Amino acid sequence: MKSRRLLMRLDGEGMLVGIKDAAKLVGILIITCCAVMVCTMFLNYYMDVTGIEDEIASEQVMVFYRAQVATAKVVCGVSGGCMLITSVVMLLFYIKHYIDVHKKELGILKALGQSDISVAGNFWVFGFSVLFGAALGFAGAFLLMPLFYEVQNKDKILPDFSVQFHPILLLFLVVIPAAAFAALAVFYAWHKLKTPVIDLLKDRLSPSAGKIRYREDKSGDCPFLKDLKRNTLKGKKALVFFMVFASFCFSSMTQMAFSMKNLASVMMGVMILLIGLVLACTTLLLAITTVIRGNTKTIAMMRVFGYSQRECCGAILGGYRPASYIGFALGTVYQYVLLRIMVDIVFRDFEGIPDYGFDLPVMLLSLAVFIGFYEIVMYVFSERIKKISVKEIMLEG
Length: 397
Known about the structure:
Elements: H1 2-10, H2 19-22, H3 26-49, H4 59-101, H5 103-111, H6 116-120, H7 127-152, H8 167-192, H9 197-201, H10 207-210, H11 223-235, H12 237-263, H13 266-294, H14 296-304, H15 309-316, H16 320-346, H17 360-386, H18 390-396
Helix pairs in contact: 3-4, 3-7, 3-13, 4-8, 4-12, 7-8, 11-15, 12-13, 12-16, 12-17, 13-17
């Protein structure tokens, strides 16, 4: 009974984790929306176009038909798989972050007799972010699908066919993913809640996040700042992944979009560009926001001890800059290798496929835009660091 009253106090709806907590997973919602939209459009097109295979009599038309089918398979496999992995990593990160922030409340619940699985059961609501994102992506795909079908068959090479609704796609792209992510959230929360009650009540930090070892540095630089930068990265490895992923998406999608004009269509290029920019901006902003929020006390104490804003930004945010540029390089290599595979392997038997080579001017343009965008974002968040109130942080402690 006591544990039930505590649950009521923690959340007005009677749940430890409420819908308002799941609403914070906007990153997963956006990534899921993009993934489901792309997969729905191409899978629905694949299912509809395969229905007219028997009507194709010409060998040239059959070659075009096979190219369309192969494109749908490759796009769904690559984009869907990549975004699925990212969504899983982001979900696990958010659950771990929630548990870290609410350690004391969770410890009290366990001390009052709540089992790990009963507390973890509340985390099923995190599946709502996937449900809403998938539903939006599925609906958005059907809004764009008539135009997509028209562009894919703009030369009227294939026999006419219309957009059909396939319930199996709704099941496998919306319902099952939402249920699977809800189950994954409960399982992962149950795994993380196996921590002893005393550790939760003491809000004990992990060694990597709680200890900064002092090292002698003969270069004259402050070893504390270097150790703080190093431990900030070690303590939040998932955020390093998000930084890499954000720059990876920006690099690969922007460069790939320019190639789609010749290899596919202008619409395909615009779609890839918009999805890449949305994914990159969303992931980057969420990652940096989480870094700032997770280090507010550290920043406040650094300011108390006289460290400048530039030193605070360098120690907290500076370590992520190399990871971002590594992500950009990986994205450049990825898009080149992927397009080479599509041109040289997947479509090697198809006539009319244009040659593809590495576009250095486009890469340099993408890099310049990325550097400008990244540094502007870093500047904006450095100004937020300046506004952190030392007094409020001290009162919270």
